[in-house]
Specification:
Radius of gyration: 17 Å
Largest sheet: 8 strands, parallel, barrel
Low-confidence stretches: none
Structural class: alpha/beta
Shape: globular
CATH architecture: Alpha-Beta Barrel
Number of helices: 12
Number of domains: 1
Distance between the termini: 18 Å
CATH topology: TIM Barrel
Bound molecules: 1,3-dihydroxyacetonephosphate
Order of helices and strands: EHEHEHEHHEHHHEHHEHEH
Length: about 250
């Protein structure tokens, strides 16, 4: 059985003070949640406040990106060991916004994923197609290319420690959630690539999250698909009641 993960991606929202206020309201709302891992991936400057606020709770904290070097002359960057040192357990890698606006490629996704694993973090590796790619029937080709370039270079041991997030770009921040069937189709395709490359057991154990306009009122339908192992939630993770509604679907 794969344990679901409900992860929030706060993107570039919230100050440290707002972070503390969020967890004050949020933690009591999810105190009974045993069925899923719960995580918040916050902006770098909010991580100390998030780690402090969640100490002793089951909520894990993550970054939203990392550099592949352990340290070095890379102005403005943050490394895996730094995230680990501050108490992070997770890190998002290859989010579509990083691919779209910050030059992320499948090659750098693989480097960051390996760096995250080396630092003892759980990378949440994002893949997903653009609207034009879906409309021209190329969804599975795109996912396969992203898998081959960004994931398939991992050893079986490394692969066993990652989480994959399927985030169709057309569903991110648009309110246009993928139907549970569309999401499940993509998850099945991805699990197929996992199986072809790493074998059946490894593929069955892989957790694949869905992301893109997940809300309290659509999470139940998504989670009813056996292929969907949790959510990577943007906008709806910013408000305690809303994200708790998703966690406690
Ligand atoms: P929304 O939930 O705001 O659509 O964002 C999804 C996302 O990008 C999570 O990483």
């Amino acid at each position: 059985m794969r344990k679901p993960i409900m992860a929030g991606n706060w993107k570039m929202f919230k100050t440290p003070v707002e972070t503390t206020a969020f967890f004050e309201k949020f933690l009591p709302l999810v105190a009974e949640a045993q069925h899923a891992e719960v995580a918040i991936c916050a902006p770098f400057i909010d991580l100390p406040a998030a780690v402090a606020a969640t100490q002793g709770s089951k909520v894990g904290i993550g970054g939203q990106n990392l550099h592949w070097a352990k340290d070095g002359a890379f102005t403005g960057e943050i490394s895996g060991p730094m995230l680990r040192a501050i108490g992070c357990q997770y890190v998002i890698v290859g989010h579509s916004e990083r691919r779209q606006f910050f030059g992320e490629t499948d090659e750098t996704v693989l480097k960051r994923t390996i760096a995250a694993l080396d630092a003892g973090l759980t990378p949440i590796v994002c893949v997903g197609e653009l609207l034009a790619e879906r409309e021209s029937g190329r969804t599975n080709d795109v996912l396969k290319t992203q898998f081959d370039g960004g994931i398939a270079g991992l050893t079986p041991e490394q692969f066993a420690r990652i989480v994959i997030a399927y985030e169709p770009v057309w569903a991110i921040g648009t309110g246009k959630v993928a139907t549970p069937e569309i999401a499940a189709d993509a998850h099945r395709a991805l699990r197929g690539y996992c199986e072809a490359h790493y074998g059946r057991d490894a593929a069955q154990a892989m957790r694949i999250l869905y992301g893109g306009s997940v809300k309290p009122d659509n999470i139940k339908g998504l989670m009813a698909q056996p292929e969907i192992d949790g959510g990577l939630v943007g906008g709806a993770s910013l408000e305690p009641n809303s994200f708790a509604g998703i966690v406690n679907f």
